[in-house]
Amino acid sequence: MKDDTIIRLKGEKMSFPEATFKIVGDKECPLYELGDELILSDIALLFPPGQPACITLVEDIRQVLTLFESLGETHEDNESGSVFDCSGCTGKVLLEYRSREASASREERKRRESDISATANLLSNFSIFQAIDEHNIRYLVTFLKLKKFRRGETIIKKGDPGVNLFIIVSGKVEVLGNDGMSITFLEKGEVFGEMSLLSGDPVGATIKVVEPTRVLFISGKDFRKILNRFPSLQMYFARLLARRLAQTNVVRSEEFASGMIGKLSEMASTELFQILNQNQKTGILTLQLSKGHAEASFREGELISAQYDNASGQKAFFDILKEKGGRFKFTPGLPPGQMDNDEIGDFMWLLMEGLNRMDEDV
């Protein structure tokens, strides 16, 4: 026996630089107790504090490590632990060898498994995943990554290429359209970024963080992969896309009808006039076009006057429809003198006639 608690394994070049030898069986050993651990680090073997070193046990450990090295085993091969007896003296112990790297790897997997379970449990409450069973949700979680954003940060920007699908875990974001106008707010359980991934078009709106937000995101490539695998997700996103488009049209209608400035390059004049008609708006639409200033007045959605390039009435309206670029603004309300003006024609007839004239010009 030696009194030192550290033994140097001189001359040995082990494949297991760090390992633990735990006593899992005690057969009247005079030195060690059940649960004691010996730690191998580099070529040093550290015995339990205050306990002497057993030369017999040192030799047994040396032989075990040499055997593993000769067999070409790695820490992964011994992840579950290897148990062996010491040679014995007046008593014996049973030891379990485990690579410390393998133990750390096992603990890391346990933590990851716990994280996956917690994330899957959270996502099961989100509407996007409610038609998917627990096993498949756990599969989907493996594709997701977590990211945190501070208040005021921009997650995606209008016009950028679509890269990821985002799922809000906590917090709140604002969807911003043209000229930074607010379209809506999104909170926990809602998704964004899907429209550009589905259509292949650039991102259609800017997403800005209103309060500290955590999101899970998945790459466009993986998003398409899971869509092909889960028909229920295809249905979910088809319904979501339809709802988002309808919501965008309503908001755009409200924006334009409340005096907002816009561009004909972003909304065609035909669509602009239809929105004002369908929403029965009363007010004056002013436009800056290629030939100068234009103006059209509406009363409860019906066109009662139009002027453009020294023309008025129907001709002015038809000429405005042909314009592809320029800016516009709608101002609610009419001067008292215009409230009683006659309509310049049935709106739908005017629109169809204008479209026909545009086709003839082409």
Mean pLDDT across residues: 82
Q: Kindly provide the radius of gyration, computed on alpha-carbon positions and rounded to a whole number of angstroms.
A: 37 Å
Percentage beta strand: 25-35%
> What is the helix fraction of residues, given as a range?
25-40%
Low-confidence stretches: 74-79
**Which strand order do you get reading across the main beta sheet?**
1-4-3-2-6-5
Can you tell me the CATH superfamily of the largest domain? Jelly Rolls
Describe this structure in words.
By secondary structure, the chain is an alpha+beta fold. The protein folds into 3 domains: 6-103, no CATH class; 124-250, Sandwich (Jelly Rolls), CATH 2.60.120.10; 258-361, no CATH class. It is built from 9 helices and 18 strands. A 6-stranded antiparallel beta sheet has the order 1-4-3-2-6-5. Strands 7, 8, 9, 10, 11 and 12 form a 6-stranded antiparallel beta sheet that branches. A hairpin with a 2-residue loop joins strand 3 (37-41) and strand 4. The longest helix has 27 residues, at 231-257. The relative contact order is 0.07. Mean pLDDT is 82; it is low at 74-79.
